[in-house]
Amino acid sequence: MCHGTDGVAKKMAEGSKNFNDPAWKKTATVESIVKETADGKGKMKGFAGKLSPEQMNAIATYVLTLAK
Ligand code: HEM
After folding, report:
1. What's residue 42's pLDDT?
2. pTM here?
């Protein structure tokens, strides 16, 4: 509903970069994605406490595989 299955931000993730955008992928790292996922960013609530560090690492690694 938010970042889509392809990583392209949907209405509920308005303001987010697209995860399949090569320019964003150049700057994003597993660490940076885990931090934003844990702490939240802007309108996005954090998942700390809801997802374990291992789960957030796995998601971040997956997110970086998304490509156009
Ligand atoms: C575990 C699942 C999720 C992950 C890994 C994730 C990851 C991210 C990342 C890495 C960003 C920053 C992208 C950038 O640099 O612009 C972001 C932004 C954002 N996400 Fe998520 N997200 C998740 C779930 C959600 C959900 C469920 C929603 C909707 C309710 C959401 C809404 C947003 C919004 C609105 C932003 C933009 C925040 C801002 O810059 O103002 N995300 N997300």
Report:
1. 94
2. 0.95
Atom of ligand 1 nearest to the CA of 60: 5
Please report the pLDDT score of residue 11 as a whole number. 95
CA 30 to centroid of ligand 1, rounded, Å: 14
CATH of 20-65, one of 1.10.760.10, 1.10.10.10, 3.40.50.720, 3.90.180.10: 1.10.760.10
- Residue ranges of the alpha helices (H) in the chain? 22-27, 30-39, 53-63
Exposed (0-12), middle (13-18) or buried (19+): which is 45, by Cβ within 10 Å? exposed
19 C-alpha vs ligand 1 centroid, how far in Å? 10
